[in-house]
Design brief:
The protein is of the alpha/beta class and 146 residues long. It has one domain: Response regulator (Rossmann fold, 3-Layer(aba) Sandwich), CATH 3.40.50. α2 runs parallel beside α3.
């Protein structure tokens, strides 16, 4: 099981601070980033055990961050925070192996449990989901090629 290191990615400073305090009080070592580009640098250099990211951010949104994390070969579980659910974005996130979603505003106990679960089971889930979606994509390509 990995250490309790969490990267929080959100463009709202108050929310980053609130989440940082919440998780530090739960014994987590917390890093923060205000956008996806800075998050990618921290993921590369610090290898957090879980990433908790807002979906809607300027410059690089949480979905692009998720895709770039896994395109780079990482198996760090990513949880996306959302203030409103969009079916297309959620489908894209599932196909990109998101560990889970959590609503904003959030229930602190549920979010803590979700992040703990991602730390314990997330890397295995990401590897399994990546293999499953690779088989699905290959099957779709083969059917399209006829």
């Amino acid at each position: 099981m990995s250490a309790k290191t969490l990267l929080i990615v959100d463009d709202e400073p108050e929310l980053r601070s609130t989440l940082q305090e919440l998780f530090e009080n739960e014994g987590w070592s917390v890093m923060t980033a205000e956008n996806g580009r800075k998050a990618l640098d921290k993921i590369e250099s610090h290898k957090p055990s879980v990433v908790l990211s807002d979906i809607k951010m300027p410059d690089m949104d949480g979905l692009e961050l998720l895709e770039r994390v896994y395109d780079g070969g990482s198996d760090t579980p990513v949880i996306l925070l959302t203030g409103f659910r969009d079916a297309q974005k959620m489908q894209r996130a599932w196909e990109s192996c998101v560990f889970d979603f959590n609503d904003k505003p959030f229930d602190a106990h549920r979010l803590i449990d979700l992040v703990d679960s991602a730390r314990v089971h997330g890397r295995e889930y990401v590897r399994s989901a990546r293999a499953r979606f690779s088989r699905i994509r290959l099957s779709r390509i083969q059917r399209a090629a006829g």
